[in-house]
Amino acid sequence: MKKIAIVATAFLFTAACAEGEAPVKSVAAANAIEEAVQDPNAVSYDDKPSPAEILENSAPSDWRSLDPENLLYIDLERGRVVVALSTQLAPAHVAQITALAREEFYDGLSFYRVIDGFVAQGGDALETREIKTAAKTMMAEFDRPLTADIGFDAIDDADGYAARVGFVDSLPAGVDAAGKMIWHLHCTGAFAFGRNNERDSASTEFYITLQPQRYLDRNLSVFGRVVEGMEHLQALRRVAPPQSADDDMGETVLSMRIAADLPEAERTALEILDSSSEAFAAYYESRRNRPEAFFHFRHDYMDVCQFGVPVRPVSPSAAAEE
Fold first, then answer.
1. H helical segments located in the chain
2. SS (H, E, C) 1-30
3. Which of 23, 188, 197, 316 could join 13 in a cystine, given CB atoms 3.0 to 4.6 angstroms apart?
């Protein structure tokens, strides 16, 4: 069986880091972090806004509508799962899933491998479906060169798997110690293709992480993240890969579509907090050192995979005007 996946702020950070230069932070982000950097528990947080207040007071310009051309809908009986696709870091994989969705390749297939605390994997478990326009195999996009045109919004917290972590288009990403290579992270909701042992053997079988699986970073090609509907994936029936059509095939994928291919009335219009905005920097810091009265100890730290980037619905007409 092939493609069983896997064995067993506004902070600005560009290619200049390859030359050893420090990332340049916005003034607002730098000030917020500097106040707490010595000892966050010695700072008064009485007058600092909570995460909810930051979002409530954010400006429309702090949010970015998710492009329907790069938004994938996975419709299940439980509801819709929405995946934001990353053309910046894995353009060939985005083109592949787009072609497969437009072929209606996944319609009627299933999530046939769902392992608690690991991944939900779907696709053509028994390899019976014809690939019409998409590639039969893919060149890996485990990582790619960090160039000046990739907007990497770095955060200051340390990470065990990458020299620097942050966000690209509000999706979590990492950079190597030389500042030369960048990749998306296997945080919860990461969307990627499975493969065989061969590096360039991905094709159609996709998986979504149910919890962070960071040891897989740079071993498989992550090219999106679930931004809505994660609860439907967490509730999927746990199943092992079938060996025949008589086995449990798991829960059915009713359809998989690119949002732009659906009538406007059938779309799930969303906008995401822009990782290059000052509101994002302020929100990140408020989650890093929670100002609410409930918290009597502040850790002055945030795990990048524990940071939930805010996403909110927007009327389809408003999204079309942007």
1. 27-36, 51-56, 91-103, 230-234, 278-288, 316-321
2. CCCCCCCCCCEEECHHHHHCCCCEECHHHH
3. 23
Prediction pTM value: 0.86
181 Cβ neighbours under 8 A, 6+ residues apart: 143, 144, 145, 146, 175
Tell me how crowded residue 15 is: count the other CB atoms within 10 A of its CB: 18
Residue that the structure tokens 């909701």 belong to: 189
**130: Cα within 13 Å, side-chain hemisphere:** 2
Rounded-to-integer distance, Cα 28 and Cα 279, Å: 9
Q: Give φ, ψ of 278 to 5 degrees.
A: -70, -30
Burial label for 168, CB within 10 Å (0-12, 13-18, 19+), is: buried
Round to whole Å and give the CA distance between 189 and 195.
Answer: 18
- List pLDDT tens digits, range 12-24: 333 334 444 434 4
Per-residue pLDDT, 321: 57
Segments making up each domain of the chain, as ranges: 11-23+66-270
